[in-house]
Structure formats: structure tokens, C-alpha cells
Write a structure and sequence with these properties.
The protein has 107 residues and is mainly α. It is built from six helices and no strands.
Length: 107
């Protein structure tokens, strides 16, 4: 397994609080992994539906329509708090993203 994947999975293991801050940190971790693999130029411009579609296209991670809506609330409303179930779903898809994404560094 690539070093960056091991490091990302180790960081992922530190998130246990189910807080807004940790949920945002999980999403940032997913983006950082993508930047390592695909480059900042490709990834920086991806937001919202384009980002979720990219994650699904390049890995086995799936982001349901409902979760996409919840993530939008989380990202754009500072007072929004996700539920424990949403946090677990987000952590699961970030884990799947890290473990299964395909890119130039996997060759």
C-alpha cells in the first residue's frame, strides 16, 4: 500500500468525536488524498456534485443523494450539526475513498 494511503488511514483513525469539526476534517482529508494523487489543478476546481461524482467515478465510494444534501448543509451552514448516523456514513465513504481510489500513484 502506498505511504500516503497508510498515512491517510492512520489520520482517519484519529477521528472519533462525531463533531462538526471532525466531519469537516474527514472531508478535508479526502480532498488532500485526491490532491496527492490527481494534482491540485484537477481537484481544486471540483466542488459539490462534481466532487462527489469524481469520488464515485474514481473509487468504490458511493455518496447517496440524501448524504449529498446533508453535506451541503454541513458545508454551508455553520450552525448545522450532522447526526451520528450521518457522521458514520461520511467516515465510511471517506474510508472507502482512501482505500479504493485509483490514480497515477497506484501504477
Amino acid at each position: 500500500k502506498s505511504l500516503y494511503k497508510r498515512e491517510a488511514l492512520a489520520e482517519l483513525g484519529k477521528y472519533t468525536q462525531e463533531s462538526r469539526e471532525e466531519t469537516l476534517a474527514l472531508l478535508a482529508l479526502a480532498k488532500r488524498v485526491a490532491i496527492v494523487v490527481y494534482g491540485r489543478v484537477v481537484i481544486a476546481k471540483l466542488t459539490g456534485e462534481e466532487w462527489w461524482d469524481f469520488m464515485e467515478k474514481h473509487s468504490k465510494a458511493k455518496v447517496s443523494k440524501e448524504l449529498r444534501i446533508e453535506l451541503s448543509h454541513l458545508l454551508y451552514s455553520e450552525s448545522y450539526q450532522s447526526s451520528s448516523a450521518e457522521y458514520r456514513a461520511i467516515k465510511k465513504f471517506v474510508t472507502i475513498w482512501i482505500k479504493t481510489h485509483k490514480g497515477s500513484l497506484d501504477v
